[in-house]
Amino acid sequence: MSEKPFTVQSYIDFINEKKLMGTKCKDCGNIDLPPKSICSKCFKDNVEWIEVEGKGKLATFSAIHVGTTLMNNKGYSMKKPYLFGTIDLDCGVSISSHIKGFDELNPEKIKFGTRLKANFEDGTETFVDRKGNASERPKVFLSFVPE
Ligand SMILES: [Zn+2]
User: Fold this and answer.
1) Dist. CA 76–CA 73, nearest whole Å
2) Which pTM does this prediction carry?
3) CA of 20 to the centre of ligand 1 (A)
4) What are the residue boundaries of the structural domains of the chain, listed by start?
5) Where does the chain show beta strands of DSSP type E?
6) Is 10 helix (H, G, I), strand (E, B) or coil?
7) How far is the CA of 124 from the centre of ligand 1 (A)?
8) pLDDT for 10-56, tens place per residue?
């Protein structure tokens, strides 16, 4: 399916193509997301790429009031927290992600088990080269939203 190496960088490259890709072990069928070159279950290196359907249920989440620089640059703050959580995907693996589409100021109203789907959004990131020159370049951001 793909010749990309089984690395987190490849995983990020696939997200820029709006694909959620993990590795599937050809021996035991275990899926790793993000991908791993060695199966996390049977520790063999007989893995292949698999496109994971980004649908599942909300398992845990936190409302983050003091976030990362990246999230602060996107407009999140003490007064505008964002949600970060874990989604149990239908394919049997879990993924941690930014979660959108809820009232972040009233997180107690959000129900565990709510159906969510992957949401790929076009944006930009600031890239700084070796000489210290900053430039904006396109990037796709993954989040999960109500299905
Ligand atoms: Zn395995």
Assistant:
1) 7
2) 0.89
3) 20
4) 8-51, 55-146
5) 21-25, 31-32, 47-51, 55-64, 82-89, 94-99, 115-128, 134-146
6) helix
7) 36
8) 999 999 999 999 999 999 999 999 999 999 999 999 999 999 999 99
